[in-house]
Amino acid sequence: MPKAKGKGRRQKYSYNLNRKRLYRSARRRAAPRIACSHIRHAWDPAKSVAQNLAEMGLAEDPNKAVPISKKLLGMEVESDGREQGKKIVRKPYVVNEMEYEASLPEKKSNTLSRDLIDYVRYMIQNHGENYKEMARDEKNYYQDTPKQIKRKISVYKNFYPEEYKDFIASLKPEKMDVQ
Questions:
Q1: Which example biological process does GO assign this protein (predicted)?
Q2: Nearest-CA neighbor of 58 among 84, 31, 37, 89?
Q3: Per-residue pLDDT averaged across 117-142, rounded?
Q4: In 3-state terms, what secondary structure has residue 42?
């Protein structure tokens, strides 16, 4: 099959085209990516970023919102006594929802893997507190050093303190039967 005409020709580079301006205008038109759902729902794409944030009662520039006073910097400046004009907040519910969400307590979702829990229990059950023996055990697949095993056991103790106490208490009767 023959080739399409003109496809194999070399492309000419246009020296007169200002690519920086094209790139900037494309970036300016793109809508901002907003992570917070409250802000996303209240956002008006017809307005600028500064206008949108001002309507919600949020600061566009944190340095302008909470300026560092000259007294802290070591210089004293006389003030006129006039306060800056207060901005009207048309969408206060955005800030209220964000404050409410921030005040909720965080859930602790930190858990250990089932394999690590089984590994630690096996080591404690068979070797007690002897970390050097644990390091030589055949179930020590990852060839952990005694200090690494001790650290894993302490992590298990911190994550599940009551479960650890119950486990140790269940091991004591077994040791009494042996003696």
A1: ribosomal large subunit biogenesis
A2: 89
A3: 95
A4: helix
